[in-house]
Design brief:
heterotetramer, A: 327 residues, alpha/beta, Rossmann fold, 2 domains, seven-stranded mixed beta sheet, five-stranded mixed beta sheet, B: 327 residues, five-stranded parallel beta sheet, 8% strand, binds thiamine diphosphate, binds magnesium ion
Chain lengths: 327, 327, 327, 327
C-alpha cells in the first residue's frame, strides 16, 4: 500500500470530503497560498479556491464563532487553529456555544464542525506554542475529542469527525506530521470511540496518546528484549473513550501505565486511571496505576529542558518496570 | 396604494396592526414574567425588554421569513417579533417539555432554529460571530437570507464585536448588527464605558455604514434597518444600526437601580414606544381607538393563555436529563 | 465568636487588605454602586472610591490582561469575573500570560493577582452560567487554585491569595454565599495547600470541594446513624494540593470517595483519585476509589433536571455505602 | 543650541548617532540570527524585523528611561532599542543561562521587566491589555511613566485590540499603541484583512487620536510618537500611531513568500530606513561618512561579540527545569 505522512493524510481526508460535499469548507489563518502554519492545507486553495479555503484575519474568537454559526445553518466547517495554545481565544465559542447549543436548545439545532489544531512540544516554540490542552476539552459535555497518532488513523478519524453532526476537536501532533504509514487511497472512516491496540502484550498495558504512542512502542520494543511483554493501546479518541478495550487489556495484564505529553496534574491520564480504578479491572490490578505526564512547568525553550519537561522513552521503560517488578 | 407613512418597501400599512400587536405581546409577556419572578414562581433570572419593544419589532418587521436573527440575554422581544409562540416561550420559562428548549434552556436560551431564530445567548457578545457565520452560509450557499444580530451597548465593548464585524466587513457578508443601546449594561452607563457617543461610530473601523435611529420610534427603526437589510441582501455587506432606547425595569431580577435616577426613568417612560405607535396609527387614521384597544386586549389574552398552557404542560422527567447530548 | 456569611467574609478579607495595602484594588464589571452581580463588593466603592473599586466595561479579555499588566508593574489587583463561565474569554490572559510570565522570563517578573469568580449551579441560570471549570486551571502550571467551602476558610484563604506573589484563581460557590460560620474580626491567613478535615471518621474518607463539602457533611451525619463513620476532607486549595492529609486519611479508613460538582469526566476528581492510587495509600485501599461528579450534560434550566445533573446527598450516601460494603 | 532637524523635545541631535547605531545593531542582530536559523544552529523559530528598524528605534527614542514597552513576537528590535544587551539576547536564542530568560523563553519571550521591557509575546495581540495594565499602575501610583504597546497590522484584528484600547481610552491611561504595519500578518495582506486603509482610523472607535507616520523615516516616527507620548504623560490618554513599514524577510523561519511579489520587496528595499537616516545625517552634516561607517562597524562587532558570548555561556542543567515555577 501507498505510504503517506500524517500531514498528507490529514490533507487528503479534507480534500476527499470537500470533493464529495459542497458544504465542507475550511477557514483559518494563512491557510491559502501560505498553506497554513504547518503546511497542512498547502495546495488546497489551488484546487478549491478562496471561497472554500478561506483565509481569515487573526481573529480566533471570530473564526471559531463563525464556524459555529455556519454549522448551525447548514455548512460543515473545518476550522484550522494555527497552534492549539490559541484555543484560549476560541474557548467561549467552543465551550459556551458549540458544545451546548444542541442540548440547551432542547435538541433543536446541531453544530457539525471540526476544529483542527496542532499541539505539543518538541519544536522549540516555547511556552505559548507547545502546550497539550486536550484535557480541557474532554471536560466539556458536548465536545468530542480526537487525537490521532498515525497517518492511517488521522485520515480515517478526520473523515469521521467531518461526518459527525456535532463539534469535534481534532488534535494533530506537530511531531507526528512527518511520520508515515500505509494509508489507503480511498476514503474510509474510523469510528470515534474505538481504541486501537497498537501492540499486543501480556505483562503490562500502556495507554498512550499522540506522540507518546510512538515513544511507548519504542519502550515496548526495548522491554521485549528484557522479556517484558507490553500491550500498547492508543485510545485515538478521548471523548468518546473506549473504556472497554482498556479494561479488557488491564484484566489481561494486571498492570497499567498511562502516558501523555500533557501536564500530568489535571491531565486526562487521571481520567483514564480513575476509570480503570472504578471498573471491574480494579480487582485484577497487581500494582498501582502509574501515570506519566508533563512536568508542572510551562514548556521551556532550551531543547534539553524542553525534552525533560515531558515523558521520554526511558521514563516509560522505567515506569513499566516499576509496575511489573512490584510484588 | 399610496401610503401615508414613510415605510420601507417590505412593510405595508396593513401590516402595522400586527406589529402593534407584537409590541403589546412583548409588553404583556414581560410584565407577566416580571410578576412571576417577583413572586418566586419562576426559577433563575430574566432580563426584560419593557420599553424596548420598538427596536425588536421594527427591526424584524423588515425581514423576510427566511431571514435569521441572533438574539441576546434580553431576548423575549426578539423571539416574539420573529414569530415565536408565547405559549412555548412561557412554557420554557416554566421549565416544561412544551417549552422551546423542552425546559432545558430557560429565558436566556430560547431559540427556534427552524424558523430562523438562532437563539438568545447568555454570553454578552456571544451572537456576533454566530450571526456572521450564518451570513456566511447564506453567501456560500447563495441562499439570499440576511441575518440580524442584536446586541447591547455593553456588548459593543467585547472583543467579539470587533473581530466578527471586521470579518463580516471584509467578506461583505449579509448581516446587520443592531445595537439596542438602552444606555446601560448591567449598571455601567454606556457613556462611561466608551469614549464615543454612539456605538454606530465604530462602523468607521470596518469601513461600513453606521447609523443611529430612534429606538423608541418603530418607524425610524424600520427605515434604518430596512435600508441596511437591503444593502446586505444586495451583497454590499454589513452595517451597524444603533437604536437608542431604554429599559424600564432593572437589569435582571434583583436590581436596586442605584446607578440611575428615578427622574431619568420617568423621562423615558414618556417616550413609550407603544404609546407612540398607537398615537401615530390613530392620528393617521390607520387604526381606530377601539381597534387599538381590541388589539391590546387580544395580546393580553394570548399572554394570559400562555400561562395556562405553561402551567398545564408536563414537567420533564429525569429520563430527559441525558437526552439531546451526544458526548 | 461573630458569625458572617461566606459572602461577607470574602468582602471583609478584601476590605481589610485594601485598608492595609494601597497596591490592592479591585476591577470588574458592575462592582461599583451595583455591588457586583452577587453583591460581594456592595458598599466598597463608598469606602474606597472609584479609583480602587474600578467598574469596567464588559471586556473580560481586557480586564484580565489589564490585571496582569498592573500586577507585573507593582499593583496587586483583584479581578472579579461575574460568572466563572466567562473565564472562556479571559483564558488567554490567565493561561498564556499570567501563569507563564515568571517562568518564561527566567524568574524575572511576577504577577500577584487574584481572579475571584462565582461558580456552580443551583440558581436556575442554565448552561452558560452554572459551570464548575476549576479543573481547567489546575492543569496549568503557574496557577494556584482555591475553592473555599465556608465563610471562615474564604476569609483566610482570600488573604493568603492576595498576599501571594503569583496568580491565584479563587472560586466562590454561589450556593455557599449565604452559608454562615464563625469568622474572627481580625485579619488572618490560611496557607494555600493545607486541607481541612471537616469531620473525622474511620470507615471511609470523602474528599469533597465547595458545595459538596456541605452535602458530604450531611451525608456523613446520615451515615453515622447507620453506624458508618466518615471522614470528610476539604482540600480547600486544589493547587497546591495537600496530598499528605488525604493519603493519611485513606491509610486510616482504607476507602475513598471523591465528590465534586464539576463534570466527572476530566474533572479534578480524577487527579485526586489517581494521586491516591499512585501513593503508598494504594496498598491500604479495601475498595475501588469512587468518584462522584456532574453528569456529562450542560447544566439544564429546569430545577429538577438541574439538581439531577450533579451529586446530591443521597448519591454520596450510596457511594459511601457501596465502598464500605465492598468485600 | 538650535537644531537642524525637526526633532521631538526628548531627542537632541547629539543622540542621533546612538540611534543610528541601534538601527545597525538590530539589522546585524537579525541577519546573524537569520544565518543561524538557516544553518539549523538555533532551535525553534524566529521573526525578524529587518527593514522595520526605524519604527522600533524611533518610537523608543522619545521615551524616558522609566517608561515601559510591551513587544511582540517580532521583538528583537524593540529590545535593542529599549537598551537590551545583545549578549543576553543572543544567549537567550542559544538557550543559555546568561540569556535574558535563562534560556527558558527564547526569541518570543525576551523581557527585561526591571528596565521597562515588559516582554515580547508569542500571542498576537497579547500585549494590548498588559500595556494597558502597566499604564494603570502608572496612573494609580502616580509614577508618571508612559507605556508603548507595539503591535502589528494583523494584531489589530484581534478582539484584545478593541477591548484594551477602549478601556485605556475611558480611563485616560498613559499608553501609546504603536502599530508597525508591515503590510502582512503571517501571509494575510493587511488590505484584505480589514476594510479600511489604515489601522489608525480605528482610533475613531475610542475617541482618541490616530495618526499615520512613515515607519521607514525615523524622524517622522519620533515626531509622531513623541506627540502621543507627551499627550499620554500629560494625562490626556492614549493614542494610536501607525508606522507604515515592511519586513524584508519572510514571516518566520520558513516562508516561501508566495503571498507577495519580488517587485514589491524590491520597492521597499529602496526605502531602507537605515540608509535613509544615514543620508539625512550626512547631508545635514551631523555625521561624516567615516563616522557613519565606524558606527556601523562597531554595531557589527558588538553583534559578533554576542555570538562569542552566547556560544561560551553555560547551558542550563536539568536542575533548572523546575526553577522559577511555584505552582
Ligand atoms: C461575557 C459576559 N460577560 C458578562 C455577562 C453578565 N452580563 C449579563 S447582561 C450584562 C449587561 C449587558 O449589557 P448590554 O450589552 O448593554 O445589554 P442589556 O443588558 O443592556 O440589554 C452583563 C454584564 C455575561 N452574561 N456575559
Ligand atoms: C493569537 C495568535 N494567533 C495567531 C498566531 C500566529 N501568528 C504569529 S505571528 C502572526 C502574524 C502577525 O501579524 P502582525 O500582527 O501583522 O505582525 P507581524 O508578524 O507582521 O510583525 C501570526 C498569525 C499567534 N502567535 N497568536
Ligand atoms: Mg445595554
Ligand atoms: Mg504585520
Amino acid at each position: 500500500m501507498r505510504e503517506l505522512t500524517y500531514l498528507e493524510a490529514v490533507r487528503e481526508a479534507m480534500s476527499q470530503e470537500m470533493r464529495q460535499n459542497e458544504d465542507v469548507f475550511i477557514l483559518g489563518e494563512d491557510i491559502g497560498v501560505y498553506g497554513g502554519a504547518f503546511g497542512v492545507t498547502r495546495g488546497m486553495i489551488e484546487e478549491f479556491g478562496p471561497e472554500r479555503i478561506r483565509n481569515t484575519p487573526i481573529s480566533e474568537a471570530a473564526i471559531s464563532g463563525t464556524a459555529v454559526g455556519a454549522a448551525l445553518t447548514g455548512m460543515r466547517p473545518i476550522l484550522e487553529l494555527q497552534f492549539s495554545d490559541f484555543i484560549t481565544i476560541a474557548m467561549d465559542n467552543m465551550v459556551n456555544q458549540a458544545a451546548k447549543i444542541r442540548y440547551m436548545y432542547g435538541g433543536k439545532g446541531k453544530v457539525p464542525m471540526v476544529l483542527r489544531t496542532p499541539a505539543g512540544s518538541g519544536t522549540g516554540a516555547a511556552a505559548q506554542h507547545s502546550q497539550s490542552l486536550e484535557a480541557w476539552m474532554t471536560h466539556i459535555p458536548g465536545l468530542k475529542v480526537v487525537q490521532p497518532s498515525t497517518a492511517y488513523d488521522a485520515k480515517g478519524l478526520l473523515k469521521a469527525a467531518i461526518d459527525d453532526d456535532n463539534p469535534v476537536i481534532f488534535y494533530e501532533h506537530k511531531l507526528c506530521y512527518k511520520t508515515k504509514s500505509d494509508v489507503p487511497e480511498e476514503s474510509y472512516s474510523i469510528p470515534l470511540g474505538k481504541a486501537d491496540v497498537k501492540r499486543e502484550g501480556k505483562d503490562a498495558t500502556i495507554v498512550a496518546t499522540a506522540i507518546m504512542v510512538h515513544r511507548s512502542l519504542e519502550a515496548a520494543a526495548e522491554l521485549e528484549k528484557e522479556g517484558i511483554s507490553v500491550e500498547v493501546i492508543d485510545p485515538r479518541t478521548l471523548v468518546p473513550l473506549d473504556t472497554e478495550t482498556i479494561i479488557e487489556s488491564v484484566k489481561k495484564t494486571s498492570r497499567l501505565v498511562v502516558v501523555h505529553e500533557a501536564v500530568k496534574r489535571g491531565g486526562f491520564g487521571g481520567e483514564i486511571a480513575s476509570v480503570i480504578a472504578e471498573s471491574e479491572a480494579f480487582d485484577y490490578l497487581d500494582a498501582p496505576i502509574k501515570r506519566l505526564g508533563g512536568k508542572a512547568v510551562p514548556i521551556p525553550y532550551n531543547p534539553e529542558l524542553e525534552k525533560a519537561a515531558i515523558p521520554g522513552v526511558d521514563d516509560i521503560i522505567n515506569a513499566v518496570k516499576e509496575t511489573v517488578n512490584r510484588l | 396604494m399610496t401610503q401615508k407613512l414613510n415605510l420601507p418597501p417590505r412593510v405595508a400599512e396593513k401590516d402595522l396592526a400586527d406589529l402593534y400587536k407584537q409590541m403589546w405581546q412583548i409588553r404583556f409577556f414581560e410584565e407577566k414574567v416580571d410578576e412571576f419572578f417577583a413572586k418566586g414562581m419562576i426559577h433563575g433570572t430574566t432580563h426584560l425588554a419593557v420599553g424596548q419593544e420598538a427596536s425588536a419589532v421594527g427591526s424584524i418587521a423588515v425581514l423576510e421569513d427566511r431571514d435569521k436573527i441572533t438574539s441576546t440575554h434580553r431576548g423575549h422581544g426578539h423571539c416574539i417579533a420573529k414569530g415565536a409562540e408565547v405559549n412555548g416561550m412561557m412554557a420554557e420559562l416554566f421549565g416544561r417539555t412544551t417549552g422551546y428548549c423542552k425546559g432545558k434552556g430557560g429565558s436566556m436560551h430560547i431559540a427556534d432554529v427552524e424558523k430562523g431564530n438562532l437563539g438568545a445567548n447568555g454570553i454578552v457578545g456571544g451572537g456576533f460571530a454566530i450571526a456572521t457565520g450564518a451570513a456566511l452560509t447564506s453567501q456560500m450557499k447563495k441562499e439570499g437570507f440576511v441575518v440580524l444580530c442584536f446586541f447591547g451597548d455593553g456588548a459593543s465593548n467585547e472583543g467579539s464585536f470587533h473581530e466578527a464585524i471586521n470579518l463580516a466587513s471584509i467578506w461583505k457578508l449579509p448581516v446587520v448588527f443592531i445595537c439596542e443601546n438602552n444606555q446601560y449594561g448591567m449598571s455601567g452607563p454606556a457613556k462611561e464605558m466608551m469614549n464615543v457617543g454612539n456605538v454606530a461610530q465604530r462602523a468607521e473601523s470596518y469601513g461600513i455604514p453606521g447609523k443611529v435611529v430612534d429606538g423608541n420610534d418603530i418607524f425610524d427603526v424600520m427605515n434604518g434597518v430596512g435600508e441596511a437589510v437591503d444593502r446586505a441582501r444586495n451583497g454590499e455587506g454589513p452595517s451597524i444600526v444603533e437604536a437608542k432606547t431604554y429599559r424600564w425595569k432593572g437589569h435582571s431580577k434583583s436590581d436596586a437601580k442605584k446607578y440611575r435616577t428615578r427622574e431619568e426613568e420617568k423621562e423615558w417612560r414618556l417616550k413609550d414606544p407603544i404609546e407612540r405607535m398607537r398615537l401615530i396609527l390613530v392620528v393617521e387614521g390607520l387604526l381606530t381607538e377601539e381597534e387599538a384597544e381590541k388589539i391590546k386586549a387580544d395580546a393580553k389574552e394570548e399572554v394570559e393563555g400562555s400561562v395556562d398552557f405553561a402551567a398545564n404542560s408536563p414537567h420533564p422527567t429525569l429520563d430527559d436529563l441525558m437526552e439531546d447530548i451526544y458526548a
